Amino acid sequence: MTRMSSATIAVIGCGTLGTSIARGILDPTDKGCITVERVITTVATESSKQRVEETLSRHSSRLIVLLKRDNLRAIEDADVVLFAVKPVKRNDVFSTPGVREALRGKLIISIMAGISTQEIIRLALGNDNTSNGPLEVVRAMPNMAAKIREAQTLCTADMDKLSNENFQVATWIFNQVGQAQFVAESSFDISAVLVGCAGSLLLLAIDGLLDAAVAEGVKRSEAQEMTVNSAIGMLKLVPAGEHPGVLREKIASPGGCSIRALLELEKRGVRSAYTAAIMAAAERSKQMSKS
Ligand SMILES: NC(=O)c1ccc[n+]([C@@H]2O[C@H](COP(=O)([O-])OP(=O)(O)OC[C@H]3O[C@@H](n4cnc5c(N)ncnc54)[C@H](OP(=O)(O)O)[C@@H]3O)[C@@H](O)[C@H]2O)c1
After folding, report:
1. Of 139, 194, 270, 281, which is least packed with CB atoms within 10 Å of its CB?
2. CA-to-CA distance for 26 and 23, rounded, in angstroms?
3. Does residue 69 share a domain with residue 18?
4. Residues 130 and 55 in one domain
5. Average pLDDT per run of 10 along the chain, which is 291 residues long?
6. Nearest CA to ligand 1 atom 11
């Protein structure tokens, strides 16, 4: 990416996450290091083109929505290219004639799950592995909470090759949909699993809690509000400095209800089930990165 204060950002594959990110950078919460002059998005189908145009209509003067046949045009016109297609589509995108050449000198960001930075570099270089000098690649893993700007996005890169400017740009982009956090690539798979799956595991727990409330006669909608709000409040105590284990002990007063509930979960192996579930997901993530 050339030095600049304003940038055109291409989002190749403007689906669920791509749209959230495009919205975030078109309507930033902080001014940061760049001004987004234009966002160029691409999608596969005409119906998705209409969806993106409607969803981001407030920003139509700075938004261009194209179909996948124009991926090359989007990349050529951009300073930063964010790949948000499904991983199975990556070869279609990168093998389009001209795409690899157009990527040279640009900041490449990929949110494709399970695709390592090495693989992104391989895709971007093609057979030309003589030089990867101008390629700066950031691999990122946001989650669905990007929709409400609450995503914790993990990022990783070869920090010897990533300029400070591009580090700032990538951080700024994901800060517009929550919070960006750079981690070493060696711990990216397990960290990504935590960011990607932990939420869904906790949602399963919420579902179970709701069933119990309904079985005991509370309306599901009311139970949902009280359960989710109290869980959010309790979870926020953790970043405020409370250790989860200590907090759990504080809640469980002698002879009380919480200790009974907690012991019931321990009896059923719930804690180790969560551990096993994350380790299984981490294993799968490692396989995906290798394949
Ligand atoms: N969803 C998650 O929670 C999550 C979390 C972390 C990472 N990810 C990763 O983020 C990426 C996007 O996920 P998503 O859930 O947003 O997927 P998605 O909603 O299916 O979005 C993918 C988009 O790519 C478009 N597309 C397909 N082929 C294309 C092509 N050749 N050129 C340009 N655009 C093309 C699709 O267009 P149409 O709509 O017209 O089909 C669609 O809009 C994936 O790689 C996924 O692994 C997802």
Report:
1. 270
2. 5
3. yes
4. yes
5. 76 98 95 90 98 98 98 97 96 95 95 91 80 79 94 94 95 97 91 87 95 96 95 92 90 94 96 94 82 68
6. 84
